[in-house]
Amino acid sequence: MSPDWKQAVAGLILAFAAIFWLNAEVIRFTVHIWTYNETYTHGYLIYPISAWLIWRKRAILAEMRPQPEYSGLLLMLLCSLAWQLGHQADTMVVEQYSMIGMLAASIWTLLGKKISKQISFPVFFLFLSVPIGDAFIPWLMDFTADFTVKALQMTGIPVFREGTFFSLPDGNWSVVEACSGLRYLISSLTLGILYAYLTYRSLTRKLLFVVISGIVPIFANGIRAYMIVMIGHLFGIKYATGIDHLIYGWLFFGLVMLLLFWIGSFFREPEEVPHGIVLEIAEGKQPASGFVLKSFLLVAISAFCGIYSVALDKIIDTPHAVMLATPEVPGWESHPGPLYDWTPHFLGSRATLSTHFEKDGLPVSLYVGYYRNQHQDAELVTSTNRLVESRDPIWGNIGETGRKVSLDGNEIPVIQARLKSANHHLLVWSWYWIDGKWVSNPYVAKFLEAESKMISKRDDAAVIVVAAPYQNPDETAEKSIRAFLAASLPGIRKMLKGAAGEP
């Protein structure tokens, strides 16, 4: 190994150590997801595969010479800013992507553009280790339900559908998160991207194969779901359940992927054998001071991020207890406890209020979850906080949509959902209260939380959920909720401001 490479590798080790120190909590969280969520267990393989891809280029890299560049520090600063925003908003996925971006920036800074270009794909491949995809689950569940119901109807079987729940003459079915096909989609895309890189040289062929590897598992999962329902319809549900786990799981997916790669092999291109590399570098050794200075700057940026985030967390930390008192709602009689034993699934709140009100025999429930000093596993906006837990044995979410509601001149953005159990149906409106603002979009909520924390305010926030029973049609339930909110919003605002310590 040449002296330049020794200095560059030493600098990278130092920079990577600082980045990993900064992201210790991020790494622990990521490994936890890889370990306990089957959808993302492939994450353990990403880094070894990336290292192997770089090792394949060792002959080319040995002929090149590292050229430290200051331009990589700009990328490092941008990734550090993104990391800081993600940290203050408790958005782990932003921190995860920012960490990998910092690694890429360190490589660019210490090795230069030409070497970075040679190993750009192995570095890009690291982004596939981030456990992301849960946001696509509702869409995938809806598509699987659409595909299955349409296929059953084309088969001549009558189907009654409510959201992702549907009934056949001989039984009831539902598309749950495990049936969404997300793990098939993520595995297929990961394998498809790697296969396209190793098999094709044309960018068009690479992109086309990646797109196909994303489309095929979605339709394959729909076929799998349809076949399971048909087996249950023809032979009994117990046979469908058993076959689902033994055959129509990963074995079915493996056969589909084998077919996809077999077809893709007919269009493979011969690997380009390099006959030499034109080196556009300066003669002589790089001065050691160049590597040392840039390594120091990379470490300094990482250290500053860590020190600033710790200091800001201490400033924001508020030890005072949170008290939520039932608001006064003129004309409505309050009763303690939830309605129909249903409570939204929001974890990690500092205080909760769960009660219901009645007027003229029409009940409306109110739930408030209040958050302060938010951190991982105790934050308001997260994929695990939802109206109904994914494995709730009683309640199911039929479907939800965003809308804006006008009440006495005030426009409130809400998420409208319909929930069902064996005996009841609920119309639900939910939204967030963050820094005195009503919002329903989770991404806007995360941005407002980060903005509030970055300017050293507290991170107090809350979720408000209002529900009323309905029968088709549901006009009565909406009228009840509107009437309740018109009477209760001033009291809810006062309660939230009081919990935040505002006058």
The global form is flat
- What is the subunit arrangement here? single chain
Task: Enumerate the spans where pLDDT stays under 50 for 5 or more consecutive residues.
Answer: 276-284
Order of helices and strands: HHHHHHHHHEEEHHHHHEEEEEEEHEH
Mean pLDDT reading: 84
Instruction: Give the total of domains.
Output: 3
> How many angstroms does the end-to-end distance come to?
67 Å
Task: Assign the structural class, choosing from mainly alpha, mainly beta, alpha/beta, alpha+beta, or little secondary structure.
Answer: alpha+beta
Number of H/I helices: 16
Please report the total strand number as a whole number: 11
Helix content: 40-55%
Main sheet overview: 8 strands, antiparallel
Q: Rg to the nearest angstrom?
A: 27 Å
Strand content: 15-25%
Question: What's the quick description here?
Answer:
With 503 residues, the protein is an alpha+beta fold. The protein has helices at residues 3-22, 24-36, 43-55, 58-62, 71-88, 92-111, 113-118, 120-125, 137-155, 182-199, 203-235, 237-246, 250-265, 288-316, 442-454, 475-500; strands at 160-162, 165-168, 171-174, 333-336, 351-359, 362-371, 396-407, 410-420, 425-434, 437-439, 461-469. It is built from 16 helices and eleven strands.
